[in-house]
Design a protein that fits this description.
The structure is a homodimer.
Chain A lengths: L4 H29 L6 H20 L1 H13 L8 H18 L2 H24 L2 H22 L7 H7 L5 H23 L45 H15 L6 E5 L5 E5 L2 E6 L6 H20 L15 H15 L3 H14 L1 H4 L4 H7 L14 H20 L7 H13 L25 H20 L3 H6 L4 H10 L9 H8 L7 H15 L5
Parallel strand pairs in A: 1-3
Antiparallel strand pairs in A: 2-3
Helix pairs in contact in A: 1-2, 1-3, 3-4, 5-6, 8-15, 8-21, 9-10, 9-12, 10-11, 11-17, 12-14, 15-16, 15-17, 17-21
Chain lengths: ~525, ~525
């Protein structure tokens, strides 16, 4: 007989939930990749049913009893042990699930479903008024949700907690304040007339769509900024696809336990550590979309593949938070993939695939082109420097909506004022402004900050990797990522959801959450690239 | 308030089960199409969980109560009404599910899982002895299952009933006896030296794998019979794929509610009437595999797409039985797709796609090549004339195994004796003999006869269509299938699972199950083609 019968039974029940969630994730993946268009209603019903089953299984009384008994069995086990972590994380998930009454969940789901439909139409027509009543309902329900979940300091806390467990609004406020203070002048320095730098080319943040808002995100395709450049030529689909696979393989993505497909909006998802799905989209007339999109999603995928196999079919499989997940996509996409050492190795390879397009473009010009800073209206097309200003704006607007400082009808004006103030540009219409993102229409308020957390943490974690691997740049320049991958697997990936992001950073020796390493990266990289002393 | 609250609640509960089954079907589809190889264990767990949930939901006490109450509510409704049919078919499904104890289901699932693994290896090594103990267990458990389910006349009845509701062994015996008596001499006439006909070419029955044993089946690829011929040239993948899509579109397959992908073994499946998935495989050196495989699966797909939309998310969605399903795949693949009128329209189109390969081959030679009769060792490569002899052999062996006339160790010898007697050929090894099919290793005993039922019914139903559409051949020769498709939709497809196959045949005015129309088709087609008077 087992020494921990409650833990065993608990694992069995949680395994069933994990299986149902995996099936739901496959339904969602298929919806974005292969599902015929006529199936949309049937698919919605299937997804609703599976979500309902997973919810009911989790809140079942027996699971509550088992959690208590398993907690006793795990007493004395280390905090990070499988047994103690399982109880802790499952308890957290269950608490959240039980606190939300089924009725509220259903009203939210319905409002989100209607909201998304209305948003799609409103965005097409660039008509905020058509979306407004839906957003009002969603904000109202989100407030009800926050109150139901409860909080001590900020109404935003329980919402943030859904995506970034352990993080609080009180930690975000100074972070964003500091970013605003430091970043706005940096952007001004880089984009004022006379600043050196890139070919007026938008490098694009192709893969900004994250694991959880899969295939959602805003308009595909590059914003029509700027003139021609080395990135805006015709790069045939197949060559791009194969180059992407080559890089992903070198990064360490295991194609026996994952694959890449196509979708309108890139995303990644996992049905098991042995079944990780990435998607990308390729624009034949704009190289960065597919190139960096693949690297970005690959970062998410390496994380999911790196979770310890013994956490399979438990709530401990998966990423610590959306922020940590995003830190990995950004680490591989940007800190590795947009670095000089990386292109020392890969540029000749890319040239060999596209001799006509790039044979006469030298490496440094290419490097500048993919790292051009230019304010854009659209978040998912932003460069790494301006990207966080887009997020900051959304964070402030969300806080305003929830705390009452901004009403929904005031939102478009507040949006434009923020864009003007942070980026110096204003959208001519709502489609490119307040309507550009899908998140609010899904009721996903509290989600946006995880993008900035991801950027910030990516630099903290990468700094840790640098300390551990002193010749990291040389290895990158040799196309050798084995040590970096191994270090990340050991320090981050294998823990799955055992640790929250603050716990993870602490254990990594990266100190508490801080934007300093990221700002340092920006200052160093772009000061040098643009030949200016950045503030 | 609803006039039929129990029916409403029943529909809701059955809808949930349908959703879970749809998710399971997607997991299975994905496993054969896109799943990375490393995911096999995780996928097995997911499939097991979903099957368990669907089973538990169906046998839930509340569903039993609702069925009783809904039966009262449906009293006086016509037999074919949605309400009466829902109760009748759901009751049938539930009776079956409740009669099988969970323990037996689990033992069968385990034996099937181990059996399939062992079979794969045994087939590779052509080593029946390695598979024998598994088959012994499976036969034993199948007997236990049959006894548990209960029967009046034949132990085979409750097994057959799983795949072909309403059909009995007593109906099959005379059918097969008659086929044996009439077909064996026909095959002899067609294949004896001096008979006219084809180019010694094996037309291949590429799509013989049916809806339910998806992607299973025996060895892919054509048997290496015969010499070169028009079908054994290099036909590039893309041209084949596109020609297949053209034909499927003309047949009436709606690509907004379905799609075609690739898999090692062709199959079809449906997650909704609006989401029907077909797969095919293409051999660049053998045209019929992809060509007729696509048409075959398309027939299955037309059936699923044609089910009345109001049956969605109920147990009435889907085909009446495996036999009726197969009748539709064979009707489109063979009675339409291998007919002279069909190729009057499509041969010039095929030639245009493959001018080098077929430009100099005249239509009649092509028609003969795709309709060549030649005994083969492998069922899935058999032509339409000899195909049913393969099934007959399996039916007789299954009966022998269950009734005790044949023991598992005697099976290979019995197999070879049957092949010799019916087809005049004997396999040199077990891989091409008794080990060729996956069915038994999955515990699917009682399944094989549905292939022959499909062939037989296809001719009965097609004869009905001919009576209703007098100029059917002319329309086929014009590539116009609208009336045939509409007639089948009205007479067969829209009813879903409301009617059993005997009920369906009766309502179609086709009389009871009879092999006469099929034999008449064979005699007329091949007598003419081979220039012989067939017995």
């Amino acid at each position: 007989m087992s020494a921990s019968p409650a833990t065993d039974e608990l694992r069995e029940r949680l395994g069933l939930i994990a299986d149902v969630q995996a099936a739901a994730a496959l339904l969602a993946w298929d919806q974005e990749t292969y599902m015929p268009p006529g199936a949309i209603e049937a698919r919605a019903a299937q997804l609703t049913t599976l979500a309902r089953i997973a919810h009911e299984e989790l809140v079942a009384e027996r699971v509550g009893e088992l959690l208590e008994a398993a907690a006793s069995e795990a007493e004395g086990e280390p905090y990070e042990s499988d047994a103690a972590s399982l109880v802790r994380v499952a308890q957290r998930d269950r608490d959240r699930a039980t606190r939300l009454p089924a009725d509220l969940v259903a009203r939210l789901a319905r409002a989100a479903s209607l909201g998304q439909q209305a948003w799609q139409k409103a965005r097409q027509e660039s008509n905020f008024a058509a979306f407004r009543p839906h957003l009002e309902t969603l904000v109202e329900l989100t407030l009800e949700k926050a109150e139901t979940l409860g909080y001590e300091a900020d109404v935003y806390d329980p919402l943030l907690d859904e995506f970034e467990p352990g993080m609080t609004t009180a930690q975000l406020r100074p972070l964003f304040a500091m970013l605003r203070e430091r970043l706005v002048p940096i952007v001004q320095s880089l984009t004022e007339p006379g600043a050196g730098g890139g070919a007026g080319e938008n490098g694009g943040s192709a893969g900004a769509t994250s694991t959880s808002i899969g295939g959602a995100g805003a308009a595909a395709g590059p914003n029509a900024v700027a003139a021609a450049g080395p990135l805006r030529q015709r790069f045939d689909d197949r060559g791009q696809w194969e180059f992407g696979l080559e890089v992903m393989r070198d990064f360490g993505f295991d194609f026996a336990r994952g694959r890449q497909d196509r979708s309108a909006h890139p995303f990644s998802t996992a049905f098991a550590t042995t079944d990780v799905r990435l998607t990308t989209r390729i624009h034949e007339d704009f190289l960065p979309a597919g190139l960096f999109g693949s690297m970005h999603e690959c970062g998410h995928g390496l994380y999911e593949q790196g979770v310890a196999p013994e956490l399979e079919r438990t709530p401990l499989a998966g990423g610590a938070s959306l922020g940590v997940h995003e830190s990995q996509s950004r680490l591989w996409e940007i800190l590795v993939g947009r670095s000089r050492p990386f292109w020392r190795h890969y540029y000749p390879r890319l040239q060999a695939r596209f001799p006509e397009q790039l044979g006469a473009v030298d490496r440094e010009d290419f490097y500048r082109a993919i790292n051009t800073v230019a304010p854009t209206l659209i978040r998912v097309e932003a460069d790494e420097v301006t990207y966080n200003l887009h997020i900051m704006l959304r964070f402030e607007l969300e806080i305003g909506l929830l705390e009452g400082g901004i009403s929904v009808p005031e939102l478009p004006a507040a949006w434009n004022a923020g864009m003007e103030s942070y980026l110096g540009i204003v959208s001519g219409n709502d489609a490119e402004g307040v309507l550009q993102d899908i998140h609010w229409s899904m009721g996903a308020i509290g989600y946006f900050p995880t993008y900035t957390l991801g950027n910030v943490m990516s630099a903290q974690i990468f700094a840790g990797a640098r300390r551990a691997i002193p010749d990291l740049d040389d290895r990158t320049a040799a196309g050798d990522f084995a040590d970096l991958h191994a270090w990340l697997r050991d320090k981050v990936y294998r823990h799955g959801r055992k640790l929250t992001s603050p716990e993870l950073l602490e254990r990594l020796g990266c100190g508490p959450l801080s934007a300093e390493p990221w700002l340092e990266h920006i200052r160093a990289k772009y000061g040098e690239l643009y030949g200016v002393e950045l503030p």
